[in-house]
Amino acid sequence: MKPDSVNSYAAGAPPLLRDFLNYILTIRGRSPKTTHEYFLDLRTFFRYLKQQKGGVPADLPFDQIEIGDIDLAFIRDITLSDVYDYLGFMAQERPRQASSPSTGYGVNAASRARKVAALRSFFKYLTDKAGLLEYNPISNLESPKVRKPLPRYLTAEDSMQLLESVEGPYAERDFCIITLFLNCGMRVSELVGLNLGDFQGDTVRVLGKGGKERVLYINEACKAAIDAYLPTRMKPHDRDKQAFFVSRNRNRISVQTVKWLVKKHVREAGLDSAKLSPHKLRHTAATLMYQNGVDIRSLQTILGHENLDTTMIYTHIEDANLREATSRNPLAGVKPTARKKASAEAEE
Fold first, then answer.
1. Could you confirm whether 112 is annotated as catalytic?
2. Could you tell me the CA-to-CA distances from 281 to 120, 179, 183, 241, 308 in Å, in that order?
């Protein structure tokens, strides 16, 4: 479901929760998707507490527990221990797929970290903004440690191979899409949201996470790809007349279509399509820029990262490459014992 407003999905939530959701949506500028996810996380939290505190019949299914009666008195009784118990439940007992009889149990650290972020924001709002709590009971709550694997990316040679292999009835469009990914490092949501008017000279305006706009410079490769695509651009339906990328059905191209066509062209280029996606092409752009001298602060701006720590992962990629280069030295396997043995044999 794509939420249009807080009331469209949180009608049964308590007023103080709806007030919080409206606050992060309209004042903090969070996206409707993020706001909806916060609602789901907080609803699960309140359902758990009601169940644990005996506020519902023991045989009532978890996902049928209503939270409309949660009030300030209930929230004032919440302790840090309650939150730890909840996170333990999420880590060990929460079904990953509630509707599946063969589901596993326990959500991963990344999902739990998001739930911690929702709780932190909610209690900070109640304390600092709404003034409904005298102190924040979870101010010392730590987030689960999330292991961040190095992102997968294409080498410059692989990228050239991918671009050179793009063929088909929509080759100009697809080539332009892949070129923008590889040169500008856009998110897939940013690319599908592009409008004709967003391109001005050598710049393009993109709408990033949280509704934040940023301006990217486009290079000669992007300009050439755009110039080749525009004459072939299908005339869209009126509702999507400003859409830059248009599908064969004359609609604004969708995220799913872009994911599909990227995998298709990656596979046809002889690369591993199972491990590559539009987001991996974004990683490729960032990695190639960093490896070729773009400083980390500039890269943060290009990618639209709110925190520099998010961008710093590309320095780890560089470190990994340097480590691998050292390990490939033909002398890397020479050990003291082997050297002595070779010396002894030579003397004989």
1. no
2. 33, 9, 9, 27, 20
Predicted local confidence at residue 332, as pLDDT: 54
Q: Hey, what amino acid is at 205? A: R
pLDDT digits (tens, 9 = 90+) for 208-245: 887 889 999 999 999 999 999 999 999 999 999 999 99
Query: Which entry of 120, 152, 214, 279 is annotated as an active-site residue?
Result: 279
Please report which confidence band the pLDDT of residue 274 belongs to, taking 50, 70 and 90 as the band edges: low
**What pLDDT is recorded for position 155?**
87
Q: What is the pTM of this model?
A: 0.62
Q: Single out the catalytic residue among 47, 187, 252, 265.
A: 187
Which tokens hold the place of 340?
Answer: 């002595």
Is 209 an annotated catalytic residue?
yes
305 is catalytic: yes
Active-site residue among 18, 124, 209, 280? 209
Q: Is 159 exposed, middle or buried (0-12, 13-18, 19+ CB in 10 A)?
A: buried
Pick the catalytic residue from 114, 282, 283, 290: 282
At residue 157, what is the residue type? E
Q: Terminal CA-to-CA distance of the chain, rounded, Å? A: 79
- Can 187 be counted among the known catalytic residues? yes
